[in-house]
Amino acid sequence: VSLAALARDPSYGTPTYVYDLSAMAVEARELTAAFDTAPHLVAYAVKANSAGPVLRALFAEGCGADVVSGAELALALVAGIPPERVVFSGVAKTNQELDQAIATGPRGIGAIQVESVEEIGRVEARASAAGRVARVAVRVNPGLGLDALDTHAHIATGHDEAKFGVAKGDVATAVGLVNAGAHTELVGFSVHVGSQFKDTGAYLDAARALFAMVATLRAEEAKGLVFVDTGGGFGVDYGEGPVARPSEFVRAVRREQRALGLGDLALHVEPGRSLVAAHGVLLARAISSKARASGGGLPPRRWLMIDAGMNDLVRPALYQARHRIVELGARPGPRAAFRVVGPVCESSDDFGSHELADPPPDLVAILDAGAYGYTMASAYNGRPLPAEVFLEGGRVVDVRARGSIAHWVEERAGLTSSRSPSGA
Ligand code: LLP
């Protein structure tokens, strides 16, 4: 099926995300192969793209899940993941979410990755109340310099000022507490220092810092350790040139792990973006164009207003991210630079300048939108959440309907019956 045909088909329309499930499965397969026979878990970061068909495609390839909320945990389980293949990260897990993680399956989830010394006391208390032993991993903040992390400040997490993880100086205390708890069992250590790394440099620095710490602790305090987790963050090429493949990150980290005598521990990684970003596009329709003539000291400029906005794909507005935009059904002929913008009443609702056919096309695709697109979408300006279409082997196999305007109006006006603020 062609993207243009999908966008023109009134039963799909625009704005619509389209995902290639087969290509996502291939990504997972290639990454998994990099572990060779080493024990491992590819814990897919569900926050990147939480659509059921995506989860099922990745779980079928043997991926586990990295979740950051009770909702994501419930979703991953409904999508068929065994509880022991789930790890739970997050700086502010509620007691309710801890209870959920502890109560799931015969032994709770694979690991609650604690992000503070304070959280350990709560895990112990909740596990004790449930009469269970919770498997715990300590997420360490290796305190790398923000400069060393070489990514956008909003997506760097492994530096001293970040809210994430247990500071190096507090790790011994954390380990002591987990060991002392009758209902907590220390199974792993993790780091996650940022996202969209284009080469292995900072990722390896973090892994090395983690492994050095673990090698020391393992002699005494952490004898029952099962895994080390070096987090997600493998970058993708948004059009600026090739980046290191996820498999290269894994091979480099495995070498370090063996060098420090930790080769027997399972290696967990938590990729989100790298498995899904390149295999999703956001289809949009041109609503109108607008030209500003030169004059008044201003250069001429042309805008193309499309029906997808920052509420559908917030990355450009939030991180100054650039996504390539291509016309569907490209035709030969003159081209011109257009400032492609959405309909939302915000200056930041702007996808940047793109060379497009002139006169401008009626349909475009925003590329590399498979990660952090739909999952970060909102109904701002009363815009319903976009539709989603799932392809397998080039055929439509599943569809999620666009959000309904009528439902939005009813809900905002207070006309719907769901009035419980707990939302349970
Ligand atoms: N593990 C943890 C603990 C994380 O916080 C994240 C992402 C990941 C794994 C997955 O990282 P990835 O492999 O996708 O880079 N919304 C931003 C990215 C935020 C990432 C948040 N944490 C964006 O659109 O660029």
- What is the beta-strand fraction? 15-25%
Helix amount: 25-40%
Count the DSSP helices. 13
**What summary fits the major beta sheet?**
9 strands, mixed
- Total E-strand runs: 18
Structural class: alpha/beta
Q: What low-confidence regions span 5 or more consecutive residues with pLDDT below 50?
A: none
Task: Give the N-to-C terminal Cα separation.
Answer: 39 Å
Hetero groups bound? ligand LLP
The global form is globular
The overall average pLDDT, rounded, is 95
What is the rounded Rg? Answer: 23 Å
Structure description:
The chain has 424 residues and is α/β, with parallel strands linked by helices. The chain has 13 helices and 18 strands. Strands 1, 11, 12, 13, 14, 15, 16, 17 and 18 form a nine-stranded mixed sheet that branches. The model has no long low-confidence stretch (mean pLDDT 95). The protein binds ligand LLP. Ligand LLP binds next to helix 11 and helix 12.
